[in-house]
Specification:
213 residues, disordered N terminus, alpha/beta, two-stranded antiparallel ribbon, Rossmann fold
């Protein structure tokens, strides 16, 4: 097992949340896009610093990222933690034997997700990572896949975990880490699905400082 040790504590301001992008394409898309954090090197590294600090003392054997944007955070976090990375895929993408579950996503559609079979030994502690947890349906599918292979959910990580009955049950049962901290004004705004930072957002906020002229 790998136990996180990071002497640097998590920052309280979470400044990088200010550069997340608002949806400009309409209702069929998610209400915001956090990938501008990944583009900005300082923002991405500070996000990962905060995650690893908040995970200090958590025993993790492997990080599982949820298709598709959970792959970005999950693989980066696994690298920081010195453990392996397991992709949990949308159905029909893997060329090996798989286990499959159905789940309802944030848009209300039913989808299938798969994990290779076998993926790990019984008792393996798996950290689940996704970009955003809104209704919790996708995360529920991932939990079922891990537990059906006798794995242990070591915790959950996302930039934000919105507040609802299902996500509150996750926080009660698992170690949940989010850049948007419960009780903060960011949490209130995420629950309302709008950020005050959108009023001042410009597309070049994501650019690394070295590319500005």
């Amino acid at each position: 097992m790998n136990t996180m040790h990071n002497d640097k504590g998590p920052r309280d301001d979470r400044w990088y949340l200010n550069i997340m992008s608002p949806n400009t394409k309409g209702e069929k898309f998610a209400w915001l896009d956090p990938t501008s954090i990944y583009i900005n090197g300082a923002a991405f590294h500070d996000l990962l610093d905060d995650f690893t600090a908040d995970l200090k003392g958590t025993d993790v054997d492997v990080v599982a990222g949820l298709d598709a944007m959970g792959f970005v955070l999950g693989s980066a976090l696994a690298t920081r933690m010195g453990v392996g990375f397991l992709p949990i895929r949308k159905a029909g993408k893997l060329c090996v034997d798989t286990d499959k579950v159905s789940f309802g996503n944030y848009s209300g559609r039913t989808q299938d997700m798969e994990m290779r079979l076998p993926a790990f030994a019984s008792g393996t502690r798996v950290l689940l990572v996704d970009q955003w947890v809104e209704t919790g349906g996708t995360m529920d599918g991932a939990i079922r896949l891990v537990e059906r292979q006798k794995g242990v959910v070591a915790g959950m990580v996302a930039i934000a975990i919105e507040d609802n009955d299902r996500t509150r049950s996750y926080r009660q049962k698992y170690h949940c880490v989010s850049a948007v901290m419960p009780g903060s004004r960011w949490q209130t705004e995420c629950n309302q699905q709008t950020l005050t930072s959108f009023d001042k957002y410009t597309a070049d906020m994501a650019f690394p400082q070295t590319t500005r002229t």
